[in-house]
């Protein structure tokens, strides 16, 4: 933790503009030279209810939301009020304040809208304030906003107050507003911002706790992108110009970004009747020679299991996204979990294979989505990017130059008409597309042709088939075709090893290890930093390649440590299970730290978990489960 | 040279081009109506002027789904009920292709019913052939969505309590812009109808009566049939929606009374196809999207240039 960090939480009702305000504020902080990280919490409800976004801003790069926060802006849930009588429904109105007190750090700041919130409705509020040494600003943001503009602009008033307290130059915000707002609402917003800023300076004392953040300058221009942005842009730069889908939170975010951008460049987006159709459309487009994708979240992805197998058997390149949320079934639609890992790895019948990536943050998400396309088209195999609700809505600053890359529209192992002339054909003129004895393709890939190409017609099928594509149950052909399809994994593994998708942190010669995957990586990395600062000897391995599994790299990591804690957001230790299945040993070295209450880990929980389990050899509290070592270990 | 030079190629086309070489011999039972569909389709192709290399035939699963194993063209034998979503995306990706989808009544009206409704509604430019044999053939004779009420099978031992689906009416309500019924017992009518269907610019649905002598005992069940477009007893205008609807209702009632009516029931030449609509509103490129991947001069758009400003 750096000394000067602001973790700002803005809370209110869904529909109160929490998301847009926080994104803008995060951007302003980024522009002022800070590193930012956002964390979003929202209920499955359109209007009202308790929602918040946290922005952590620091001079140093930030990798997680941190533990708790030090600045609360509680707006009051405008949807909890009966608009006619101007009266509260119960004490819902005060929720954005009292629901957020537990995690507010000692010495933190509370700004609340006294025009909408009444602290007398909160039990022991004053005592708690005193106990925790909180500094409270009760400001009638609602009236302030109403006087100059409209009530919804109390967000802006809240940001103005924040600037004054945290000593942030409101210029940064003004500049952003000028960029983003239409003339009509710009003026009142600017006035509200200024008035709120001055009000604090004039009426409140200066001995507030120190939550000020310095401003600086980044070495190069930064952009603020979420995991969903990054995945969409990764697809775009991979040359994907076709998406088909059906909405489901949180996958909808990528689907929306792509749908809004693709038509502008002549790409095609299709919202269709269900997820089976969505994946089947992506297969159809890919078969016809366009880079295509689809995706969903748990329940919708379950429906895709059928077309997923079709893509594999027919060797049609396909990229799918799986944005996991807490399950089973409809589960908790807006809460993160990593419980769909096994679903994504093993769904679909038979010895069905796919390539699975689990990126950790927006930068990795962009990178690995590009790789997912590259592998899918080079090897004619489905590849899946699994991520979760946490990563999808998490914003980070990344240098703009990171995205400054050549697009990759290559269709991979596909022949041109010129090449088709020399390719093998059967007696009726059919291109022998599925050769297993092709000396030119040691990696098991037989290049395809695209409908419309002269001399290229062939039959693709979900049945087992001969080299020409004809359905066959011949045993020798079956074994040859299976072996060839499985052989692709050797080439893929070698390519992925070169890319180095796995993340390492901490001293190389550490005694202990912590392993994790996907979106928990940043949090674990921060925890590992703290553990080493506290005198422990720990290193981290964040695994991104779920299939084919990076056996050698993980083995080497586990060989080098005495014990290893496996951190993941699910109840059945799926990632640990995968590791043991793939490696077939090390069971006794591994213990699990699990969380599945709908909220991601915070670094302190991992520090605690490590100290309790590894250092003290004790039982982990709460969410821990014991794991039976793998057979033969 | 275009990357897809088979598309639009002008030359004499021989129907033998659509027949595979030695392998494979059809696995259909002797007397199966599916042979009639295959024959009609092979005869229709040269007249439509399409070559095997510019044709994509997508099928589902079932005896019917094996159609493209015995037909020489680009083919995608998909999975049960899913031929339509695969086919329509291929057409969007490359509108120059002649796209035909085919499957059984179980495949198309049962498991794939949802896709049927939506593909018709969107009016994709393609031809959809449903082999309607009123039975599940490949899984050995279970009751299908078009089996008559009271139909007994191993899985419906007491006789089906369900009314059969009305495929023509369903198609019209769903939005198909060309609807016809033909029968395998008359490949000549079938050929003409398939030609019309393929030349139609929009979703052309052909309910193709195919007898299944193995599981639906009465192999001659669609004989004699009546061509409503030729018959003096049935006078109606297929471009008139209300008249078409009335005619479909009559046909669907009579089939189960033993009178087989066939012909073109509905034709709407005015309605633009889905691809045209999408192009008009700017949701689809004028030139085939698939072409772009073979065009070395195409300048691929980049995130860095197009979208990053709003994130700064
Ligand atoms: C998801 C799925 N469910 C069931 C099956 C088994 N199945 C194969 S063919 C078929 C019935 C086909 O009947 P129909 O579509 O009428 O075609 P026909 O064989 O009569 O031509 C079924 C149920 C399957 N292959 N896939
Ligand atoms: S089972 Fe029926 S539909 Fe299938 S091939 Fe035999 S006759 Fe034809």
Tell me what the structure shows.
- The complex is a heterodimer of chains A (about 625) and B (about 300).
- In chain A, helix 8 (about 225-235) packs parallel to helix 14.
- Chain A has 21 helices and 23 strands.
- Chain A is globular, with a radius of gyration of 27 Å.
- Chain A starts with a strand and ends in an 18-residue tail after the last helix.
- Chain A has about 625 residues and is of the alpha/beta class.
- Chain B is of the alpha/beta class.
- In chain B, helix 6 links the parallel strand 7 (about 180-185) and strand 8 (about 205-210).
- Chain B has one domain: 3-Layer(aba) Sandwich (Rossmann fold).
- The model of chain B has no long low-confidence stretch (mean pLDDT about 95).
- Classes of the chains: A alpha/beta (about 625), B alpha/beta (about 300).
- At the A-B interface, strand 9, helix 8, strand 11, helix 10 and helix 12 of A face strand 1, strand 2, helix 2, helix 4 and helix 9 of B.
- The structure holds thiamine diphosphate and iron/sulfur cluster.
- Thiamine diphosphate binds near residues 103, 106, 107, 131 and 135 of chain B.
**How far is the N terminus from the C terminus of chain B?**
43 Å
Could you give me the name of the CATH homologous superfamily of chain B? Thiamin diphosphate (ThDP)-binding fold, Pyr/PP domains
Count all strands of chain B and give the number.
Answer: 10
What percent of residues of chain A are in strands?
15-25%
Work out the strand percent of chain B: 15-25%
List keywords for this structure.
heterodimer; A: 633 residues; alpha/beta; Rossmann fold; 4 domains; seven-stranded mixed beta sheet; 23 strands; globular; B: 312 residues; eight-stranded mixed beta sheet; two-stranded antiparallel sheet; 10 helices; binds thiamine diphosphate; oxidoreductase activity, acting on the aldehyde or oxo group of donors, iron-sulfur protein as acceptor (chain B); OFOB (chain B); Thiamine pyrophosphate-dependent enzyme (chain B)
